[in-house]
Structure formats: C-alpha cells, structure tokens
Amino acid sequence: MTTKEIIISTKNINKSFGATHAVVNLDINIEKGDIMGLVGENGAGKSTLIKLLGGEHTVDSGQIIYENMPVSWKSSAEALKKGIAIVHQHPLLVSSLGAAENIFLGKEFVQGFFVDNPKGIEEATKLIKQYPIYADLDLEKPAREMSAGEKEVVEILKALSYEPEILILDEPTASLPKDETETLLKLLTEINRTKHITIIYISHKLEEAFEICNKITVMRNGKNIGTLAKDNFDKDKLVKMMINQDISEFYPDKTTKTGKILLEAHNLNTNILRDVSINVREGEILGLYGLMGAGMTELVESIYGLRTLKSGKISVNSKAIEHPQVEMMIRNGVFLIPADRHQYGLFPSFTVSENITIAHLFSLFQEFLIKRSRENQAATEQAKRVNLKYADINQSVMELSGGNQQKTIVARWLLQECGILIVDDPTVGIDIGAKRDIYKILRELTSRNKGIIFISSEINEIIGMADRIYTMRRGKITAELKQEDINQENILKNIL
C-alpha cells in the first residue's frame, strides 16, 4: 500500500483558556487528499484544534507542521494565504453586503478607484458553475435577508474562491435543507477527487462522516482518542470512543407503566393532514415518524394552534379545545419546542437569561417590574437543571454551542410546570453529549407522569426513545407501533 504525503500534522500541541485545557498534548497526522472526519462531544476540542491549524489561535506549546515545515501562523489571513481555509459553523458575513460582495470581500475587483460590482457578480456566477452547491443563489441579496442555508453556501463559496490546499468545514450542513446537504456532500467528494483538496470535516451527523470521509478521528477532553479508517467505521465503536460509554447505555430506560390519556386528537384535517387521530398518555414518550413532508410537524403545529384546522377535535385532560390557539394551549399546560430553533425558538439578540425567562415574565413578575437579579436566579436554576454550559448567564445566547442553545429552549419550557411537552426534532445538529442530556431530561419528565410527543428525523433515535410510535405517510397515520413492535423493519414498512 502506498503511503501518502502528510500535508499537516501536530506534535504534542497544547492550548488553554484560563483554567480550561482545550487541547492537550495532541498529535494528529492528516495526509494529502484525505477527507478526514473530526468528531466528538461539544467541548472535546474540535473547534479549538481547527482554529489552531487555521491561524485563529496560537499554540501554547508543541508544533504544527504544514507541508513539511514548522509553522507559527501570525493570523488566519496568513494561513489562508498559504492555502488553509476555514468555514465556520456560524457564517461570518457582512450583513449589508450581497452574496457576491461577501464572497470576494478583501479581494474585490476594482475599476479605477471604484469597486467593480458587476465584475464581482460575473466571477461569483463562474464560481457557482464550478461549485454548484446552490445554483439559484441570489448574488445581490444582502446577507441580512438570507436564510441560514444561503449564508452557509456563501461562506463555503468564499473559502473555495481561494483555491485552498486544505478546506476545513465546521458543521457545514447544520443549516442546510436535505437537497442542499446532499449536493454539498457530492461536491466535496468531487473536489477532493478532481482537485485533490484535503478536507477536514467536523460533524455531529455520523452518517454524513461515514458517507464522505476516508478517516474519522475522535476527540474527547482535548485529546486524540483514535482514528478509524473507512473499512473500520462502526457507529457503536465511535460513540463509545466519544463518550467513553457503551451505546447500549446511551438511551435511558423506557417507561414500563403509563397512565391516563393527557391529550387526544380525533380526525384532524388540514391542507396536509387527513383524518389523523392520536393520543398521548401520562408517563410516555409518543413518537411520530415518517419521511420528510409526511406531516409530523404539521400535526403538532395544528394541535398547538399554529396552523388552522379544517375539521377535527382536540382535548386536553378530557377538556375539549375549540379552535386551538398557542395561548390557550400554554394555559392548558401544553408546551412546544419547535424544529427550527434559530427561526422560531431563540431570541438571538437576547441573553441566555432572557431567553430562558421570556415566556414566563408575567408569572415571575406579577408586579409588572422585571427584577434582573430574580430573573437571573430563575434562569440559573433552570440552566443547572438541564446541564447548560455557559460562561455567564447574561452572555449572548448566540455565543453558545448548538447543543446548549437547544438546552436553553428546553430550560425555558421547563421553567413552569407542564403536562405535555411537544418536541420537534430536538437533537438535530447538536453533539452526542447534548443529545444524551436531552434524552435524560425527557425521561425525567415521564417519571413525573408528563406526556411527551417526540418527532425525530433519525430512525435509531425514535426506536431508542419512543414507548409507542405513530408512523405517517402523506398526511395520514399508517400504523401504531407498541413496545414489542418497535423495530426498523416495521417502521420502514409503514413509512415507505
């Protein structure tokens, strides 16, 4: 077997931030032409490592070797000039500039003393043809008007415009729809094959890493735990390396006994739903599963009053709910954590504390005067309850990791007692440790006789968490699966 050239490596590097040791005595070798997956829980050191490789941080000790030469980058611009480009999880775009302007920011095309914007659009169009991630991207749309997916595409195109030797991507598909995700994965494989670009790919979605990577390196507590070659990829083994625990212990024990019906929906019809009937009981996690567009999200949003029902009946604790509305459902102890936390769940300009308390200000401060100290105390108690990791309860919520942003929303809806919690894909785009924390929170709720309606896009997750499952296809319930019937074969048979 031919040994490939090592393009970048680290020798015993360390990086600390105060008392936090983010990277510890880390050795890693990345060969030219690799697509190397980098996985681990939040806080494992992945983001710090790529920032060290890309010149955004400097090592405290140890050495980085790039193209057989020791390097000590003075800035990310220097590393970029030498061929190392990073695409961060949260795009770093200028909100007032269009897509083309952001792509070529810092290397604008000029005509005389002025920036030649038409030339920029022309070159950006060529770039999109060369790298067709998103052919319909509006190159003149300001970044502030772009969707999260569009911003991610612009950030990737910006990095590719430098024709890098090494392309580092940190959770590039977290904000992308399924079609764009598939296109990006194919594109990365293609540019790796044809242009021999070395790719370092951070993702919490192990299926994506399995699909495109030829190696996967696992980090835990700032250390390199090991690297698996493609022939040895095994999800159970990777998870154990990441969390130092067998995957059989990953999902909490299921409910053995359920109580009365808490919520019942009968013959619901909308533009998408067709005669849908479900119920959820005390002490159970009820799963809803189907292919994208099958109607799971539409169902829970209709129950919650976010969509208009054409017909059907809903009851909570045997009380009929006529024309459900959000305020009415909240008063009846039904809370919803939506699928898109950035668009519908988080208040990005608010602090962690404000995001936790925002839905409960009237009950917390009936005298109509918000006391910051009491608000922070309530938020801190909730943060502890969900194992939220943060530096300061008054820091911006956007400074938190994706998993901790999701736990912030969970903390909000657990601040007051609920009877039924509806969670729509609550673990999408978050790390495996945060997933485990959310699973434990949901099981703790069922132990107190709460009912959970749980939507997931991952079949293993729905099997691992749900006590009972309704499968859906084209807006209809196709089966009700109980404990002994919950397996992959039965689920797939009823959703396809």
What is the gist of this entry?
The chain is of the alpha/beta class.
What can you tell me about this protein's structure?
The protein is an alpha/beta fold and 496 residues long. It has two domains: 6-246, 3-Layer(aba) Sandwich (Rossmann fold); 261-495, Rossmann fold. Helix 14 (372-385) crosses helix 15 and helix 15 (402-414) packs parallel to helix 16 (432-446). The chain has a six-stranded mixed beta sheet, sandwiched between helices. Strands 18-19-20-15-21-22 form a six-stranded mixed beta sheet, with helices on both faces. The chain is built from 18 helices and 22 strands. It has helices at 46-53, 76-81, 99-103, 117-130, 148-160, 178-195, 206-212, 235-243, 296-304, 326-331, 341-345, 352-357, 361-364, 372-385, 402-414, 432-446, 459-465, 488-495; strands at residues 6-17, 20-31, 35-39, 61-66, 69-71, 84-87, 110-111, 114-115, 166-170, 198-202, 215-220, 223-229, 261-269, 276-281, 285-290, 311-316, 319-321, 334-337, 420-424, 451-455, 468-473, 476-481.
